[in-house]
Amino acid sequence: EKADPQKTAFLLRKAWTLYSVTPLYGFRRARLRDYARLLGAFIAAEKQKGLAVEVGVELDIKVALSSLADIRGSELDQAALLVQLSSRSRGSSRNSEDKPVWWGWFCSVFGDELSENVPEHFTCLPLFLSHGAESYTALVGSWFQKTFDCCFRRLAISPLNLSWMAAMWAGCKLDRAASAVELVFSVPRLAQPLDISYAIHPEDAKALWDTVQKTPGEITQEEVDVFMDCLYAHFHRHFKIHLSAAKLVKVSTAIASAHCDGIVKILHSQYLPGVLKLLTELAISQIQ
Amino acid sequence: MDETVAEYIRRTVLKIPRDEIKMMLQKWGFLSEAQLQTLNFHQIKDNISQEVVQLCEENSADIKQAAVLDIIYNHIYQNKRMWSVYQMKKSGEELEYFDITDFKKKFKRRLRSALKNVTITFKEYEDNAIWIRVAWGTPHKKPNQYKPSYVVYHSQTPYVFISSSVLKSTLPLLCQALIVASNYHDIRDMELRSHSLNSLKDIVFKRYSQNFQTCPPKPLQGGNVEPENADIRIVEENRSEKERIHRLNQEVFGSGPQPKLEFAQYRLETMFKSDPKMDVLDKKEPFRCLVKFSSPHLLESLKFLAPAGMADAPLSPLLTCIPHKARNYFKIREKKGLYPESFVSP
């Protein structure tokens, strides 16, 4: 499923904070305009209460809700839902252009495991990604929680899942000058903290993965383990350090980067569906 | 007083933490004690710096004096800058008597012949360190005082410590002027960088605690307390392993504090070797990697890797050689010949 590159361009090269979201009760696609109005009113009311998000200039926040029809995996998936907050400087008649200040989108890419079993009136969009001030995320999140009786939780990414991403993305076909496959480790509990960045030339990382992967299109846990063990062994040969005992906190490749705190950046539109499918899986495991 | 000089002095004073302004102005010595008495150091910094500028106006300060204040600030806050170490080479063996006046004259002459618009300032400190500040301009523009280069030269040594301007083209000019002024014939980048200027000096002047201390092994300090275990044999084995690691650490690192470096970078161009049973990559070309270690105090953190169980003891020579090789940027290639497991760093 290829998403229209123009519509999804805004998704690329932004750092998205990840959440899992339980199914929304009573959500209706036809009412997007109403929801936008209600959310806008909610935000304005919260600001009046003194929970101002912007210091200084008075800003009106405009809310827009739209569907991203192209972002889904199978027919069972709901189309993605985008929430965009824009600011318009109050009283500035000359330049009344809206400036986007926050994005949040819900999606499900091959989230069949969840959608298959959900009762009527529930909409499954288990993965939520936000970009922009944390205060806006909190406002939007609490409105959705109140309105649709759902629950947002930050989605952390374990070292195990990060190594999956490293293996998967290292194996992707590279067309242009690709960036290195970088693994960042943190060594906890030392008197002086130590960070280790281990960056492998993308061609060499891919060459290694290609000899490890037995069936194209399929990846097994065993293959990921072998790939990582090879990298750990090469490192140990030089530095006598057991990287496997350190904490893998970030993986960065030409395709995408992911941080254990649940922050991802997608760099290649071609691989957007693949990355979203993996993240949807993670979100669903956190919900269940 | 020139407007730009006034602004520069104002901004320099603003950088200084409020309780240190008086001390720094005294070190500067440009304002009289009487003038300093008139300053109210208990108001907000904005006001203090305005008052300082007014006093400088009274004394007709020019850029030369302002530059000295900047050196004083950077000397005290030297660790805010990133320093690189360079080593100069002499062609002959003659030990020449170092004449500071001659040095300054030749340095200024060399720079000015290449670039008309430069501000050059010198300040000497007690430990034979000469601090040089150079602000760079172009044939048509006055020097940019906000992006200067700083050089620290210990005249009794071939070492210079440079905190480069972000204007990259200025570095070759700076190096040229240094070797001409100091009667050396070449200069090389030692690939040794850190924010801690003193630690860099410790490394090149060999002032840190080195290998093979002869003091007796100390009893184990701090760290994990062994749980009481009924099986005495287990405790004994573990303890002897811990002692072995401790002893090896002592041999490598010594028992004193390590020089403070923040990172080490290794460009690996070695072969990927694996167990043939694993049936993985078997290329004839190098497996190219870039490894970077970062820490607020790298050598101290490396010291504790083996005791923490994260690394083998002895630690790899690639890491332990950092202080005595006086570098923290390395390119590692495979060593050909009898010992394929060892590495060579050109």
Automatic annotation (TrEMBL), chain A:
<comment type="similarity">
    <text>Belongs to the CENP-L/IML3 family.</text>
</comment>
<keyword id="KW-0539">Nucleus</keyword>
<dbReference type="GO" id="GO:0000775">
    <property type="term" value="C:chromosome, centromeric region"/>
</dbReference>
<dbReference type="GO" id="GO:0005634">
    <property type="term" value="C:nucleus"/>
</dbReference>
<keyword id="KW-0158">Chromosome</keyword>
<keyword id="KW-0137">Centromere</keyword>
<dbReference type="InterPro" id="IPR025204">
    <property type="entry name" value="CENP-L"/>
</dbReference>
<dbReference type="Pfam" id="PF13092">
    <property type="entry name" value="CENP-L"/>
</dbReference>
<protein>
    <recommendedName>
        <fullName>Centromere protein L</fullName>
    </recommendedName>
</protein>
Automatic annotation (TrEMBL), chain B:
<keyword id="KW-0539">Nucleus</keyword>
<comment type="similarity">
    <text>Belongs to the CENP-N/CHL4 family.</text>
</comment>
<dbReference type="Pfam" id="PF05238">
    <property type="entry name" value="CENP-N"/>
</dbReference>
<dbReference type="InterPro" id="IPR052011">
    <property type="entry name" value="CENP-NAC/CAD_complex"/>
</dbReference>
<dbReference type="GO" id="GO:0000775">
    <property type="term" value="C:chromosome, centromeric region"/>
</dbReference>
<dbReference type="GO" id="GO:0005654">
    <property type="term" value="C:nucleoplasm"/>
</dbReference>
<protein>
    <submittedName>
        <fullName>CENPN protein</fullName>
    </submittedName>
</protein>
<dbReference type="GO" id="GO:0034080">
    <property type="term" value="P:CENP-A containing chromatin assembly"/>
</dbReference>
<keyword id="KW-0137">Centromere</keyword>
<dbReference type="GO" id="GO:0007059">
    <property type="term" value="P:chromosome segregation"/>
</dbReference>
<keyword id="KW-0158">Chromosome</keyword>
<dbReference type="InterPro" id="IPR007902">
    <property type="entry name" value="Chl4/mis15/CENP-N"/>
</dbReference>
